[in-house]
Design a protein that fits this description.
MgtE N-terminal fold; 3 domains; 3-stranded mixed beta sheet; CBS-domain; 67% helix; 6 strands; single chain; Tetracycline Repressor, domain 2; 454 residues; mainly alpha
């Protein structure tokens, strides 16, 4: 499809190009524009679209393409696009653009649009207020169904959804909710207040967007009403907005779990300098924190260089540290996901730790038995003639057992404690857990060796 359209552009067959584009879904057209590297070809495709479809496509393309298009658009065309876009999409566009384009866009917009955009920009990032749209239909509880249907026909084409309708009083306080089906199946003289559902689930403008996403999952909403502190209806969040939130939050958590700052742009559109900036501070922090591991090794230098035992002990350090880090990473990943899904709270800390303790004991026994056999059958072969016996393998296996149990407890507790301290639990993921457990496992390992082998 892309090659076919590219040929039409090169041959300037705009009539055929327009016909081909009108057969496509707006999101597919947006994908096509994002694949078009030449600004001239990009503009040709966009200009051939009818104005209303062009405005809709504009809201779907990423910020880089939007910026390229705005440069070539007249003020009149830019104004039309801003007026046709839903306010939440217009706000996203304004937030992503450079200052000069923002200034131009706001100058061309109507006074009402500017006021709405400025209002939305005033909400904190990652809150319900920042992702909601004010384009919805509200019905007054004292109005008859017949009057409400006329209102829906008049305003319906300019809002994001009419499947769910919200009922307010004269002060715009949210009183109830009903579906379009409820209206259509009722007598036309029935008052809306008589058929509305007063059991309303809603969020405030200051509610975190993750909590909004959780409400959508729990109640399977197509839309969620957003109110201010006085419970006045100010907007709604629709399902498509929540999908973006889920994707954004998941990307952020994955980035933090990998010890890197989340990037707002796709990987291939992020510069090497930006990637360096996102990763360098975390690597430096982890490097500095790993200094404690080096201190433990330096402190036990005499132990680790004491003849045949020292050689065997040193050879097993990577195995002990690696297994401890992996065991802690397993627990932390499970608990972080549980916290994200609101399955685990701070009150569950001791319950979680008890469960992970038993899991740690079972895993510790399994791995330490395997470790004992491995040392006796494989690692210990070069040392058998030099006095290394089952005792050394037993001490190393015991250190492995204690390390795994300890790793499970640390791995489950730190994310919960981080959440309690209002930190992102994802920060306490594998890299940090591994660094902490490296030090703790070495302390246990060297302590047991000093007590029983030397």
């Amino acid at each position: 499809m892309y090659k076919e359209i590219l040929e039409l552009i090169k041959e300037n067959k705009f009539k055929e190009l327009k016909a081909k584009l009108l057969e496509m879904h707006v999101q597919d057209i947006a994908d096509l524009l994002e694949q078009t590297e030449s600004p001239r070809e990009l503009l040709k495709v966009f200009k051939v679209l009818p104005k209303d479809i062009g405005a809709e496509v504009f809201s779907y393309v990423d910020s880089d393409v939007q910026e390229k298009l705005v440069v070539f658009l007249t003020d009149k065309e830019l104004k039309y696009i801003l007026e046709e876009m839903y306010i939440d999409d217009a706000v996203d566009f304004i937030e992503e653009m450079p200052a000069n384009i923002v200034e131009r866009a706001l100058k061309t917009a109507t006074k009402e649009t500017r006021q709405q955009i400025n209002q939305f920009l005033g909400y904190e990032d990652h809150t319900a207020g920042s992702i909601m749209t004010p384009e919805f239909i509200d019905l007054q509880e004292g109005k008859a169904v017949k009057s409400c249907l006329k209102r829906i026909k008049r305003l319906g084409k300019d809002v994001e959804t009419i499947n769910v309708l919200y009922v307010t009083n004269e002060a715009r306080v949210l009183k109830g909710v009903l579906s379009i089906r409820d209206l259509l199946l009722c007598d036309e003289d029935t008052k809306v207040g008589e058929i509305m559902n007063e059991n309303i689930i809603y969020a405030e403008t200051t509610t975190d967007q993750e909590e909004v996403a959780r409400l959508f999952k729990q109640y399977n909403f197509p839309a969620l009403p957003i109110v201010d502190k006085e419970k006045r209806l100010v907007g709604i969040v629709t399902f498509d907005d929540v999908i973006e939130v889920i994707e954004e939050e998941s990307t952020e958590d994955i980035s933090k779990m990998a010890a890197t700052t989340p990037s707002e742009k796709p990987y291939l559109k992020t510069s090497p300098f930006k990637l360096w900036w996102n990763r360098a501070p975390w690597l430096l922090l982890l490097m500095i924190s790993a200094t404690f591991t080096g201190l433990v090794i330096s402190k036990n230098e005499a132990l680790l260089s004491s003849g045949i035992y020292g050689i065997l002990l040193t050879a097993c350090i990577p195995m002990i540290m690696g297994t401890g880090g992996n065991a802690g990473g397993q627990s932390s990943a499970t608990i972080i996901r549980g916290i994200a899904l609101n399955e685990i709270e701070f009150k569950d800390l001791f319950k979680v730790m008890l469960k992970e303790f038993f899991v740690g004991v079972l895993l510790g026994l399994t791995v330490s038995v395997a470790c004992f056999g491995k040392i006796m059958l494989i690692d210990g072969l070069p040392f058998k003639t030099q006095g290394v016996d089952a005792m050394s393998a037993l001490i190393i296996s015991l250190a492995m057992f204690i390390t795994i149990v300890m790793a499970k407890l640390v791995g489950c507790a730190l994310p919960i404690l981080a959440k309690k301290c209002k930190l992102d639990p994802a920060v306490m993921a594998s890299p940090f857990i591994t660094t902490i457990l490296d030090t703790l496992s070495l302390l246990v390992y060297c302590g047991l060796a000093l007590a029983f082998l030397i």
